[in-house]
Amino acid sequence: MDDKSLKSEIADSWNAEADYYDSHVSHGIQTGEEKKLWIEAFEAVLPAGNGPLDILDVGCGTGARGLILSGRGHNVTGLDLSEGMMNIGRRKAKDTGLSMVFQSGDAENPPFEDGTFDCVINRHLLWTLPNPDAALGNWCRVLKAGGKVLVIDGLWDDGKLSTKTKRKISRTIAKIVEKHPHESRYGEDLSSSLPNLGGVPEEKAKEYFSKAGLAEISVKSLAHIRENQKKRLNWYEKLNASWSYYLVSGVKRG
User: Fold this and answer.
1) Are strands 54-58 and 75-80 parallel, antiparallel or unpaired?
2) By the 8 A CB rule, do 63 and 100 touch?
């Protein structure tokens, strides 16, 4: 598949899921307690500054994390291929009086001038990128010197037979009992074009950052947030709920 076809299928898949995406635990933020944990995690790693930051949320989806940052007074621009997902985000921004802007575009190649943002963030995005190395390079490009890239990710399929078995059982039960079970709608050709389909190990994420030329690379565990989310999982979802979860950050050299 060429890049245009890949991106079109990705957009179609998330458009189909948009109306109920936030209803799934770990997608939407469903409690004030979890929101507080995310605020603490972000504030521990955001670039230091006296005023609001200009933040780009690539692969923003429904804006769950970008809206938190907007609520903290930052200038947040969300970028996504899926208009359906962003329409949900636009509605949430309007309902809460927040100023986050949602713009259509490719997360791998943000359509912005060099040095535009103080921070580029994303969550659960690397797994669905055909060209993650190029994406990291472009995220650095649109950063100001001294700006930061923040990536929230994890590894939910390590390839082990036990993991695959748990995932299969969990998904099978979800299909039976849930009205809108969460599952990838990606076809075989698209899936085979994604180098991180089962998630990204911490060391692999750090490697992407290093190749992009980022400095001061560090990884912060988000296991406590995952544990908080697990409280709201159905019993069959908990069969496959223990996987690494982290926030990796890096600084653009001056």
Assistant:
1) parallel
2) yes
Please state, in angstroms and rounded to a whole number, the distance separating the CA atoms of residues 214 and 205.
12
CA-to-CA separations, 41 to 7, 21, 195, 223, 243, in angstroms, rounded:
31, 23, 27, 11, 18
C-alpha–C-alpha distance, residues 6 and 25, integer Å: 27
Q: How far apart are CA 45 and CA 252, in angstroms?
A: 14
pLDDT tens, residue by residue, 180-234: 766 667 999 999 999 999 999 999 999 999 999 999 999 999 999 999 999 998 8
What is the DSSP pairing of strand 117-123 with strand 143-155? Answer: parallel
Whether 65 and 88 have beta carbons less than 8 Å apart is answered as no
200-226 as b/e, with b when 16 or more CB fall inside 10 Å?
bbbebbbbbbeebebeebebeebeebb
Residues 247 and 243: their CA atoms lie apart, in Å, by: 14
- 67 burial via Cβ count (<10 Å: 0-12, 13-18, 19+): buried
Contact by Cβ (8 Å): 78, 52:
no
What's the chain's Rg over C-alpha atoms?
17
This prediction has a pTM of 0.93
